[in-house]
Amino acid sequence: MKLCERCNRPLKSQKSMDAGMGPVCKKKQAEEEAQAEFERNQLTIDEVLNDGKIENAS
Ligand SMILES: [Zn+2]
Fold first, then answer.
1. What is the model's pTM?
2. Which protein residues have a CB closer than 5 Å to ligand 1 (ion)?
Protein backbone atom coordinates (compact mmCIF):
# COMPACT_ATOMS: atom_id res chain seq x y z
CA MET A 1 0.00 0.00 0.00
CA LYS A 2 1.32 3.39 -0.98
CA LEU A 3 1.27 6.35 1.41
CA CYS A 4 0.76 10.03 0.73
CA GLU A 5 4.09 11.85 0.46
CA ARG A 6 2.77 14.81 2.48
CA CYS A 7 0.62 13.35 5.25
CA ASN A 8 1.63 9.65 5.13
CA ARG A 9 -1.96 8.51 5.01
CA PRO A 10 -2.77 5.51 2.80
CA LEU A 11 -3.79 6.43 -0.73
CA LYS A 12 -7.09 4.98 -1.80
CA SER A 13 -7.34 5.63 -5.51
CA GLN A 14 -5.02 4.64 -8.34
CA LYS A 15 -4.93 8.29 -9.42
CA SER A 16 -3.64 9.35 -5.99
CA MET A 17 -1.05 6.58 -6.03
CA ASP A 18 0.18 7.77 -9.43
CA ALA A 19 0.45 11.34 -8.11
CA GLY A 20 2.14 10.15 -4.89
CA MET A 21 -0.34 12.05 -2.73
CA GLY A 22 -4.05 12.44 -2.10
CA PRO A 23 -6.22 15.01 -3.88
CA VAL A 24 -6.26 17.44 -0.92
CA CYS A 25 -2.49 17.30 -0.49
CA LYS A 26 -2.03 17.56 -4.25
CA LYS A 27 -4.06 20.78 -4.22
CA LYS A 28 -2.02 22.15 -1.30
CA GLN A 29 1.19 21.20 -3.09
CA ALA A 30 0.06 23.03 -6.23
CA GLU A 31 -0.82 26.13 -4.18
CA GLU A 32 2.59 26.07 -2.47
CA GLU A 33 4.35 25.71 -5.79
CA ALA A 34 2.36 28.63 -7.20
CA GLN A 35 3.28 30.70 -4.14
CA ALA A 36 6.95 29.73 -4.42
CA GLU A 37 6.91 30.65 -8.11
CA PHE A 38 5.31 34.01 -7.25
CA GLU A 39 8.00 34.68 -4.65
CA ARG A 40 10.73 33.76 -7.13
CA ASN A 41 9.24 36.19 -9.62
CA GLN A 42 9.14 38.93 -6.98
CA LEU A 43 12.81 38.33 -6.20
CA THR A 44 13.61 38.54 -9.89
CA ILE A 45 11.79 41.88 -10.13
CA ASP A 46 13.73 43.18 -7.11
CA GLU A 47 16.99 42.11 -8.73
CA VAL A 48 16.04 43.88 -11.95
CA LEU A 49 15.16 47.05 -10.02
CA ASN A 50 18.46 46.92 -8.13
CA ASP A 51 20.35 46.52 -11.39
CA GLY A 52 18.50 49.56 -12.76
CA LYS A 53 19.56 51.64 -9.73
CA ILE A 54 23.19 50.66 -10.20
CA GLU A 55 23.01 51.61 -13.88
CA ASN A 56 21.41 54.95 -13.04
CA ALA A 57 24.09 55.70 -10.42
CA SER A 58 27.00 55.11 -12.71
ZN1 LIG B 1 -1.86 13.54 2.07
1. 0.64
2. 4, 6-7, 22, 25
Domain extent at residue 38: 14-57
* CA of 6 relative to ligand 1 center, distance in Å: 5
Count of domains for the chain = 1
pLDDT of the chain, 58 residues: tens digit per residue: 899 999 999 999 999 999 999 999 999 999 999 999 988 888 777 787 787 666 665 6
Q: Computed from CA positions of residues 19, 22, 25, 27, in that sequence, does the dihedral angle turn out positive or negative?
A: positive
Cβ neighbours around 17 below 10 Å, total: 16
